[in-house]
Amino acid sequence: MKGQGGTGAWRLRLIIPDAIRRGWLAQHLTQHPALQVSGDTADLDEVYGRQPLGYTADVILVDLLLPRTVQPEFWAVVHQLYPVSRLMALWTDAVPAAVLETALAAGAGWVGDWRETPEQLTRRVLSAARGEPPAWGGQLPAVQRAYGRWAQSRPGAQIVCLDPAGRALVISGRRLPLSRLHYRLVERLYQGNGQVVPSTELRHAGWPHVKVGSASLDQLKNAIYRLRQIIEPQPNQPRYLLAAPGGYRLCVTAPPVVS
Predict the structure, then answer these.
(1) How many C-beta neighbours within 10 Å does residue 80 have?
(2) Which of 5, 16, 28, 259 is found 20 to 30 A from 94 (Cα to Cα)?
(3) Any residues with CB less than 8 A from the CB of 176 and at least 6 apart, and which?
(4) Under 8 Å CB-to-CB from 185, ≥6 apart: which residues?
(5) Within 10 Å of residue 253's Cβ, how many Cβ atoms?
(6) Of 206, 228, 203, nearest to 217 (Cα)?
(7) pLDDT of residue 181
(8) How far apart are CA 43 and CA 11, in angstroms?
(9) Three-class secondary structure of residue 111 per DSSP
(10) What is residue 208's DSSP assignment?
C-alpha cells in the first residue's frame, strides 16, 4: 500500500492557480502508475477558504508564483488542512528568493523547477512521495543558494548534499566539483548520514578495483587531506569532514548556532 487512501498510488494535490500549468503538470504526472492527481482549482479555494474538502493527499504541490506563498500564514493554513502531507514547492526564476526561503522555512522539503522536463519533475515528486532526502545537489544554482541561506541559520537542517550528475558536493549552495576518487569517498561518507564510516570501507570505496585492503591507510589519509582542501573553508579546522575513532564522518546538517 503506497498512498494514504490505500489506492496503491500516491495522491497528489495541485495548488496551482494557472489552468495551463496545472493541466500540463497533471497530464504528465498521471502517466506514472504510482501517482494519482486528486485535485483541481478547488484546492486553491480550499486553502483560501480554510475549509477542507475531505480528500487526503500524500504530496501537496504548491506553485510559488501564487502571491500568497510569501506569507507564512498561507503555509500555516496548508499545514492545518493537510497535516500529514509532504510539501513540494514549484519554483521558477521569476519567484523572489524570499518566497522560496519562506516555503523552505514552512517545511517544503522538495523543490521542483517549472523549466525542468516532465521526467525530471516526476522523479522529484516520486522522491517526495517516498520521503527520500531532497536532492539539493541536483537543483539549479539559484535554488541551491536559497536553500543554503535558509539552512545555515537552522540547526539540524541539511546543508550538505550530492550532485551525482555533476560529480560534485554542494555545501550551503556552493557547488564543489570533485575528482572521481574524491567523489567516491564523499559518496560513501554521505551514505553514512552523519555516522562514522570505518576506514576499511572508505578504502574499498575509494579504490574499488584493487584487492580489498590493498589501498593503504596512508593513501586514504592523503586523499582526505586533499579533499579537505577543496571542501573546507579552513582545512586545518574542519567543519564537515571529521576524523573519528576508526574512520571518518561527514557532517551533513547545520551546526548549532552559538549565541
Answers:
(1) 11
(2) 28
(3) 168, 169, 170, 230, 231
(4) 202, 205, 206, 223, 224, 227
(5) 15
(6) 203
(7) 94
(8) 13
(9) strand
(10) T
- Among 98, 115, 110, smallest CA distance to 158 is for 110
d(CA 14, CA 36): 11
Separation CA 119–CA 122 (nearest Å): 5
CATH of domain 10-132: 3.40.50.2300
List the chain residues with pLDDT less than 50: 1, 4-5, 41-42, 255-259
What is the amino acid identity at position 219?
A: Q
Question: Is 105:72 a contact under the CB 8 Å cutoff?
Answer: yes
Query: Which of 3.30.70.360, 3.40.630.30, 1.10.10.10, 3.40.50.620 is the CATH number of 150-250?
Result: 1.10.10.10
The 10s digit of each residue's pLDDT in 10-42 is 989 888 888 888 889 999 999 999 998 875 544
